[in-house]
Amino acid sequence: MGELIERLVYLLLVALAIRSALQFISRLWTGQPRSAMRPPRGGSRPAAAGPEAAQGATLLHQDPVCGTYVATDTSLKQVIDGKVVHFCSAECRDRYRTG
């Protein structure tokens, strides 16, 4: 019985190691930041960057046209249907308008 439990624990550890390695490779391949891989915990949204935010912390948004992640403070913003949409460039903003 003890040997069976050892084998199950070993298989679990191997599966977790493989999963972690695949996630790491996926992030490298797609260029996604770690925060984009999973939704925020507790259903809350990350705090907006401001004077009270931690130094160096930047909120990123995904451009709806090309998928590039762009920082809030450097993005081109457009209010569409009452929602702020962030773009990486004027070209993407214009393509979104015409598309």
What does this structure look like?
With 99 residues, the chain is of the alpha+beta class. The protein folds into two domains: 1-36; 59-99, no CATH class. Helices cover 38% and strands 16% of the residues. The strands form two sheets. A two-stranded antiparallel ribbon has the order 1-2. Strand 3 and strand 4 (83-87) form a beta hairpin. The radius of gyration is 20 Å and the shape is rod-shaped. The protein starts with a helix and ends with a helix. The model has no long low-confidence stretch (mean pLDDT 79).
Task: Give a short summary of the structure.
With about 100 residues, the chain is an alpha+beta fold. Helices cover about 40% and strands about 15% of the residues.
Record keyword descriptors for this entry.
single chain, 99 residues, alpha+beta, 2 domains, two-stranded antiparallel sheet, two-stranded antiparallel ribbon
Largest sheet: 2 strands, antiparallel
* Multimeric organization: single chain
Class inferred from helices and paired strands? alpha+beta
- Compute the number of structural domains: 2
Radius of gyration: 20 Å
Summarize the topology.
Elements: H1 2-30, E1 60-62, E2 69-71, E3 76-80, E4 83-87, H2 90-98
